[in-house]
Amino acid sequence: MLIISYIALCLLFIVYLYTLSVRIEGKIINVMVPYLIITVPTLYVFEGIFVYLSEVQNYTVEYLFFYTCYITYIASFVISYLYTQRKPIYNKSNTKNKPRYVFTSLLFTFLAFIIYLPVLMEFREYILSPRRIYELTRTGYGIYFYPSLMFSLVASICAFFTYKKSKLFCISIVLFNCILIF
């Protein structure tokens, strides 16, 4: 029960960090959103359910250490990001920089899909059970999984910058990448 209480406390601290970043930046979609989408369900919700349903009381110290490390990591990242971004950056060049976030998000989504395609093709019968794919690909498939995960995260971040232009595009790219990740 101590483990579940500590996981809940860590989740409350994550929510506090998110509200702090919303208050300082003034934006709902900010630096914490990718962490909230990807990590909160896996580390805090599903892991809490797993701890509740299984007998892992012998690993209390390990869980406390693990979650303390995660909280330290994300807290240091968010606080350093929020409090080092105070100075405005002035662009003195004559060229107009028009970021191509739509193209970049589509490109990284395509790259993520192409890189993960060999795993999807080999294990197409398990496409709806990612746990089984994980069991079968424990060794030798990291070269496909990790770059694909990185490209999906970068595509999702780039898609968030297109939110003002097209909400439907932003939501569809983020949802597709979440499906590809999970």
Automatic annotation (TrEMBL):
Keywords: Membrane, Transmembrane, Transmembrane helix. The chain crosses the membrane at residues 6-24, 31-52, 64-83, 103-121, 141-163. This is O-antigen polymerase.
